Amino acid sequence: MLDAALLHRTVAPPPAALQAPALIECQGLRHTYAARSGPDVVAIEQVDLSIAAGELVCLLGPSGCGKTTLLNMVAGFLPPTAGRLRVGGQDVRGPSPDRGVVFQDYSLFPWLTVQGNVEFGLRMAGVPAGARAATAQHHLTLVGLEAAASRYPFELSGGMKQRVAIARALATDPSVLLMDEPFAALDAMTRASLQAQLLDIQARTRKTVLFVTHNIGEAIVLGSRILVLSARPGRIVEDIRLDGLARPRRRSSPEFNRLYERLAAAIGAEAGE
Ligand SMILES: Nc1ncnc2c1ncn2[C@@H]1O[C@H](COP(=O)(O)OP(=O)(O)OP(=O)(O)O)[C@@H](O)[C@H]1O
Q1: From the CB of 43, is ligand 1 less than 6 Å away?
Q2: What angle do CA 252, 220, 21 make, to 5 degrees?
Q3: Does 63 contact ligand 1 (Cβ within 6 A)?
Q4: ABC transporter domain: which residues (predicted)?
Q5: Is this prediction's ipTM beyond 0.85?
Q6: How far is the CA of 181 from the centre of ligand 1 (A)?
Q7: Could you give the C-alpha distances from 130 to 122, 127, 145, in angstroms and in order?
Q8: Ligand 1 center to 128 CA (angstroms)
Q9: Where are the domains of the chain?
Q10: Which of 75, 98, 198, 272 counts the most CB atoms within 10 A of its CB?
């Protein structure tokens, strides 16, 4: 049974002794989109959040609640309208190679080979060719694509493209990996395979991951922690720690199903269902 100790719901934060130093910190965070016509759109509001190094945090919530907005703010693509956002103790002022991003639509450069795509961030950072190639090969091996280094994106399946995108995001050795519905466009089998690969990569690299998904099952399979955002403007209404839930997490287990029902109810309530 998934008991209260296992599902640590942090409406109140955990005791100080349990808190690792925060890598990502949000305080009173808000983002408002200025509308060209009509009222401005407050996408997220009063988000207070602390994510420690090594956590794999899944962000769930009803459509349009502000998940991508929050992820884009951590990436440095969008500024806070109010509040404070720090990564590694520094205020986020724009994108940085220290925060790797993986998008749903792969966003590979079609004119570059797989190797060229993975080397791209290193090239921008001025890393010499030999070191670039070695680092790219290391990360292509990590995602099982070392044999595809000289292919072009159009020669790859969707799952392979997304593995290249993950290798590219990891190549600059970021402290944070930001993933926006990265597996949503993949078929169920490929999706399950990439979920397993991501868990393996995260276990090996201990990267901190913030992962946006619509899919409750995916959040339970992956997360060391699940955050549920309210309907827009998004605020955190559930903060559930799953460190005690054994892996691999089987969809057939009673614990999985109880958690699934709880999250579905929370999201449904927010979506007004
Ligand atoms: N550039 C923009 N200008 C104005 N409004 C925007 C802009 N981008 C997003 N929004 C609005 O902000 C709100 C939050 O959008 P966001 O994409 O962050 O939500 P989401 O939870 O990721 O949605 P989904 O789950 O459907 O992908 C939505 O109401 C959306 O329409």
Answers
A1: yes
A2: 145
A3: yes
A4: 29-256
A5: yes
A6: 14
A7: 11, 8, 19
A8: 39
A9: 1-10+19-98+174-273, 108-173
A10: 198
